[in-house]
Structure formats: structure tokens, C-alpha cells
Amino acid sequence: MGNIFGRKRRPTRVTEQDRAVLQLKQQRDKLRQYQKKISIQLEKERLLAKQLLKNGKKEKALLLLKKKRYQDQLLDKTENQISNLERMVQDIEFAQIEMKVIEGLKVGNDCLKKMHEVMSIEEVERIMDETQDGIEYQRQIDDMLAGSLTQEDEDAVLAELEAITQGEEVELPEVPTEPLPEAPEEEPEPEPEPERGVKKPEREMLAV
Amino acid sequence: MSFEWPWQYNFPPFFTLQPNVDTRQKQLAAWCSLTLSYCRHRKLYTLDVMEAQESPVFNNKKIERKLAMEAIQVVFEELRKKGNLEWIDKNKTRCLIMWRRPEEWGKLIYQWVSRNGMVNSVFTLYELANGDDTESEEFHGLEDWMLLRSLQALQAEGKAELITMDDGKGVKFF
């Protein structure tokens, strides 16, 4: 019971087109097998012809080569047929894809239409108008509220701001109290020549 | 690539079934794995017991040892218990050997199909096992029964559907 139910629930996903493709491919497989057979035969006959020539049976070899030539042509023909079949398969597969694309477009189109039905132009216009009104109204309110502060008040506010900013003390780091390193003590020596005096501390600093 | 024989292969007692239960268990396990890896190496999917007797697996010419017919049957029976082997006929002369389970084959095939973007396409069974496109794949040359089983396994998973037509079968992957 469950089995039957299970089988019914899952419908086959194989379409008519799939079956057609399969049939074409089966045909192609047969041709391929045929091709294999002929090419093996060809190889055999080539070897045989060689053997015959070696044995001096030229007539027979020639006959064999004629047969081989005919089979060569057959091989070409089957090759053509195979490519025909394969093209057909590809055409079908592509057509299936195109069908899917169109289906997709259709769904999209329907969806878009439905959404457009909801938003009619008049409706949009009305909403936009109302929004505009709303903005206008809001601005009036803003004006009214902002208007409660006169120019004088504004000036007072600015002045207060100024006072606060000026009153702020800038915090500076503490000045160090310990004596400076030795370097400056040596300095008096070369003082007479200012050029060297400038250079020496530099060298010392490098040394440190 | 040559087949690498296990050390037991050149060990004469390996070719006689051991009476001790423990030893015998180990011996059978070694035989099973040897048989499977040999079949895997040679890509064998069906075995004939008579032929197997002569094959290098059960017949080591170098040390002149042969596994007896009864012992081969025991090994095969062991493989059957493990699910790697199935008898084709009642007389147990021919068997199917599965060194890879159908599900694993199915997985390999499906991997190939999806790697090549051919999901949603139709294939003939011949094309899968013998086509030019699958030449370098492991499942190339897979025997029909094994291919069919692996595809059935895929079908059970909903990844494929077998199509039966008048002449031959096909499969569509999803």
C-alpha cells in the first residue's frame, strides 16, 4: 500500500523531449559501434593487403584496397550522420532551455503586471500630492516653532557660546624639574667658535 | 601499473585453509581483501569460479601453491556475507563481484555529471560506460549490471531517473 502510494506521489520527471533525445543518442551509439567495427576491419584489411603484396599477390591486394576504400567512404558517411544526430540532440536541448527561459519571462511579466495593477498612476499622483502637502504643513509648523526665538535671543545664545569657549583653560604638561643631562656642561669649551659649537652637540647626540 | 601482492601471497601456508579459528578468520580476511583489490586492479566485475582457480590470485606459480576449489568457495562465501559478491546461478559457478558498492559508483558518476554541467541531460547507458567522454573516468568500462545498479541507487536518492525504451535503457540526471 505504502509502496503504491510512494510511486504515485513521485511523478516522472522525464519529458517527451527527453525520450526523443534518448532515442537520438541511442541511434548515435549504434553508429559509433558501427564505426568502431569498420575501423577495426579497415586496420585488419590494411595489414592483410600488405601481407598479400609481400607474397606477390598484387591482384588480390588491389581488390582488398578497393574494398577498403569503399569502407572508408562508409566511415565518412557515418561520421556525418553522427554529427547530424548530435546537432539534433543539441537543438532539442537548446529548445528546451529556451522554453524554460520563456516560462521564466512569463512568470516575471505576470508578476510585474499584478504589481502594476496595485499601483495605478492616479494613486501615485494622489500619494505624491498628499506627501507634498504634508511637507508643506511640517514646514509651517517648523517656522512657527523656530519663530518663538527672536533675533535677540539668538545673539544671546551665540554670546554664551563664545564665553564658554574662551573660559576653557588649555591644559599644558608640567615643566620638568630635574636638571638637564651633562651635555650642556661641556658646551662652554668650544664656545669661541660658534660653528663647531653647533656641530658638536649634534655628534654627541648621535653617539648617545 | 603492476599489482602489488601482499606479503601473504608468497607465504605457502596462506594457500591452505588454517584449522585454528582465529588464524582462519585472519586468513579469510586477507583473502577477501586480496581478491577485491585484485579485481579492482584488473577491473573485473564478474568471476567464474573455474577460471578463478587458474587466475594468478588463487594460483601462485612462483611458489607453486594453489588455493583449492573448496577454499575458493569458502572465500567467496565470506565475500558474499560481506555483501561484495553475488551468485549469478544456483550452482555457484559464476558470480558478480562488487569491489565498490553501487552507491559509491553512483556517487562517482553523479560527480562526473555535475562537474561537466550535464545535470538535467539524458544519457544512454552505452554512452556512460563506453563513450569517448568518460574515457578517463573510473567508471569507464563498467559492466551493464553494475552501471544499472548504481543508477538505481541514484534513482532512489532522486538524483536520476531511468528511462526504458524499446531498445536499450537511458538515464536522466537531476
UniProtKB/TrEMBL annotation, chain A:
Output compositional bias ranges, type Acidic residues. 183-192
- What InterPro entries does its record include? Snf7_fam (IPR005024)
- One record GO biological process: protein transport
Gene3D superfamilies registered for this protein in UniProt: 6.10.140.1230
Coiled-coil intervals, chain numbering:
17-44
Q: Name one GO cellular component term.
A: multivesicular body
Report biased composition (Basic and acidic residues) as residue ranges: 193-208
Show the segment(s) annotated as Disordered: 165-208
- Which cell locations does it reside in? Endosome membrane
Name the keywords, alphabetized: Coiled coil, Endosome, Membrane, Protein transport, Transport
UniProt similarity note: Belongs to the SNF7 family.
Name this protein carries in UniProt: Charged multivesicular body protein 6
Give the source species: Conger conger
From TrEMBL, chain B:
What name is this protein filed under? Vacuolar protein-sorting-associated protein 25
Keyword Glycoprotein recorded? no
Q: Name one GO cellular component term.
A: ESCRT II complex
Name any Gene Ontology BP term: macroautophagy
Q: Which UniProt keywords apply?
A: Cytoplasm, Protein transport, Transport
Q: Which organism is it from?
A: Conger conger
- Give the superkingdom in one word: Eukaryota
Q: Does the keyword Ligase apply?
A: no
Drop me one GO molecular function for this one: structural molecule activity
InterPro entries assigned to the protein according to its UniProt record, in alphabetical order: ESCRT-II_cplx_Vps25-sub, ESCRT-II_cplx_Vps25-sub_N, WH-like_DNA-bd_sf, WH_DNA-bd_sf
Major subcellular location class = cytoplasm
- Which family, according to the similarity comment? Belongs to the VPS25 family.
Q: Where in the cell is it found?
A: Cytoplasm
Classification via Pfam families: ESCRT-II
